[in-house]
Model the fold of this input.
Amino acid sequence: MNYTIVTLFIYLLVAGNATFFLGQHLYKNGYYFLVSIFNNREEIIQPVNKLLLVGFYLVNIGFVLLYLSQNNNITDLRSSIEFLSQKIGVVFLVVAIMHFFNILVFILIESYTKTKQI
Done:
């Protein structure tokens, strides 16, 4: 059995599915966050939410694929688990940082629009 091929396949399977399900979850629940920021302006909320979803997929899938490369041969179960935990852990950290940055940007937009309305 070639541990390297199996491990890379598992990495793509886990990271790809996590990206898809997180994107869907953020899309569904992010709608309510955008409603409060854009004051129920549906003509802006839906397109922004869809653009965020597409951007999320593009950035994360691109990162997952770029981060796929590895220099060491995976020869046993232990090195396979170590590889998967390192790669998937970093992918999740990048997703979390990107999500935090998006939230921060929208909070800044909301505070800016509230100061302009006064």
User: Anything to note?
Assistant: The mean pLDDT is 88. The chain is about 85% helix and 0% strand. The radius of gyration is 19 Å.
